[in-house]
């Protein structure tokens, strides 16, 4: 087994462990380390595989965001959002560098549906967001929609990247509902929490695999 394969497999094991044990309950130090380590190791793997700097940076920034969001949401939400904002800001030019699949009605329709749906969802969600963080939420929504639109325009050879990016967006949609619509004192929504981490981590794995072109490790 190569060093890269070991790092990749360890990342998957940590991601699966976090999904099974910690994503729907209080994290503690162990949960924080497992959560952060899973994506951080994915970043290390991308580096070992010779992946683009922007991919390595996006995954590393995502790991930082994971660390923040493993804590109390009220205290660390804004730093976590900032880290993920920068991660998406790295993904956008990365996807642009990979090229476009050419102009076509399905691609443009998909981009339009994503952006229009995102704007409608944001307009519906905004009244439930605390006023002090509405601007960051709007900015974050803008950059993740740009990332999604760029992913949809990728050539067919990068379909894993497109799928991973859309999974990432779906994860954020569910997470926003948990953060802003679920009662603070209500019981944990275990299915939603499982979906958030599964879509997010799975999406990051697919993006990393698709960008590096490494279907095998």
Structural commentary:
This protein is mostly helical and 217 residues long. It is 78% helix and 0% strand. The chain has 8 helices and no strands. The protein has helices at residues 3-22, 28-48, 53-69, 73-98, 105-125, 134-152, 159-180, 190-212. Helix 1 packs antiparallel against helix 8, helix 4 (73-98) packs parallel to helix 6 and helix 6 (134-152) packs antiparallel against helix 7. It starts with a helix and ends in a 5-residue tail after the last helix. The relative contact order is 0.13. The mean pLDDT is 92.
Short descriptors:
8 helices; globular; 217 residues; mainly alpha
**Estimated helix fraction:** over 70%
SSE series: HHHHHHHH
Count of DSSP-assigned helices: 8
Q: Label the structural class.
A: mainly alpha
What is the beta-strand fraction?
under 5%
Rg to the nearest angstrom?
17 Å
Q: What does the overall shape look like?
A: globular
> What is the total tally of β strands?
0
Determine the mean pLDDT. 92
Largest sheet: none
**N- to C-terminal separation?**
9 Å
Q: Regions with pLDDT < 50 over 5+ consecutive residues?
A: none
